[in-house]
Amino acid sequence: MSNHYHLLGTATGLSVDRVMCRLLKGISDEVNRRAGRTNHTFGGPYRWTLIEDWFHYHHAFRYVYQNPLRAGLCTDVSQYPFSTLGGLVGTREPGVPITSHPFERLALKQIRRNGKSDWIPWLNEPYDAAHVDGLRRALSRRKFRFCLGRGSRKLPRQFVNVE
Q: What's the structural domain count of the chain?
């Protein structure tokens, strides 16, 4: 986690490339200004993946929030200090506003109504190594496609459609 980040967003008529160019340039300029340096901040170009259906979005969402868990930086997804999730569930002040994706709006509505979220345990439930690798490969493609390994026909329990 010290060498990358994930950003889930919804594009509505905007050029993702232009938005990312402005974002990365702004971050780079600010880091260089504060550090008094002039070198590159990011080591290479960003990569994006188009996610077109709920099933894939749910698992990309979960994969992204579990990244700090896999890296050993926290023991609960809502405790990672550089995530929007802590602000959403009330474990700390909200920083960056959560996106307007329908899945996240539904989760926020549930938290406000119940004072808790029953999907936090789902986010904390780890994937096995083979599925993490499959999700990593899916996120490296231009269009998200999750494919199971050869000889594997059945999705595990955690891949049940949560729509």
A: 2
